[in-house]
Amino acid sequence: MKTKFLLIIVIAILLFTGCAKIHEKECNETESETQVIHVEMDQVIYEDYADLYNSADLVVRAHCIGNIESKLEYEYDGNYQKDVLVFAITSADFKIDEIYKGLTDDDLIKISQCYGVEESTGNLVMYSDLTEFNEDDEWIYFLSWDSNYETYFACGDYTGRYSTADISIMENIVNSNDYSDDDARIAGVWNKNLISIEMYKAVFENLLQNSPEVKYD
Q1: What's the pLDDT at 136?
Q2: Do the beta carbons of residue 130 and residue 138 sit within 8 Å?
Q3: pLDDT in tens, the chain (217 residues)
Q4: Structural domain boundaries, residue 126
Q5: What are the CB-based long-range contacts (under 8 Å, 24+) for 131-136?
Q6: What does DSSP say about strands 124-126 and 36-38: parallel, antiparallel, or unpaired?
Q7: Nearest-angstrom CA–CA distance, 204 and 108
Q8: What is the dihedral angle through the alpha carbons of 6, 91, 206, 100, rounded to the nearest 10 degrees?
């Protein structure tokens, strides 16, 4: 486990003057266009499977069933004399298919990520390297419980969520010269360089090849 030290970008500047670069596509800088703004923050990431597994309160295979809702946090900015977005959390309901570690009261849980749509501009502001929630998407999640927000988050952001696609598909994505929106949706991250085949192999060997502790129909 290590801490990923990244520059915290000033959101107010980004919302009015900046244009983040996401998966090799540059945004149009006109305010009329919807932009994807990636705000980089300090975060813990996991490069060792054992560390990731031990840090998780719950390890599951689950799929999104909808009810995707965002909570936006604003603060007044004297420079612009208006409220500006400072943080966003989006939550979704997931149905658990299999549990590999931990226990829950039932097979439905809420999982959250740090992103949201800024109300005045319509810009998608992301504080995470994960792609957004989409209904019916299925993932292997290493989850930690956040008592402040009363929800689960992926441990170590992108290092705590894995595609259920075959490893050969992931290897083809990594080795390809292109990285399309479809590839990003399969892999679950906007940046192909964040995909670790070694971690995928560890997840497959330690979880998917073994019987889960609990399996729901």
Answers
A1: 95
A2: no
A3: 655 433 333 333 333 333 333 333 333 444 446 788 888 888 889 999 999 999 999 999 999 999 999 999 999 988 888 888 888 999 999 999 999 999 898 899 999 999 999 888 888 999 999 999 999 999 999 999 999 999 999 999 999 999 999 989 999 999 999 999 899 999 999 899 999 999 999 999 998 777 788 877 6
A4: 2-215
A5: 131/184, 131/185, 131/187, 131/188, 131/189, 131/190, 132/90, 133/64, 133/68, 133/90, 133/92, 134/64, 134/185, 135/64, 135/65, 135/66, 135/68, 136/63, 136/64, 136/65
A6: parallel
A7: 24
A8: 140
Cβ(92)–Cβ(67) under 8 Å?
yes
Q: Are 99 and 207 in contact (CB under 8 A)?
A: no
Kindly report the length of the chain: 217
In Å, the largest CA–CA distance within the chain is 57
CA distances from 162 to 48, 57, 81, 89 (A): 14, 16, 42, 20
The residue with tokens 């990003």 is 184
- Contact of 22 with 36, CB cutoff 8 Å: yes
Number of domains making up the chain: 1
Mapping DSSP to helix (H, G, I), strand (E, B) and coil, where does residue 180 land? coil
Amino acid at site 217: D
Cβ atoms of 144 and 101 within 8 Å: the answer is no
Neighbours of 52 (CB within 10 A): 22
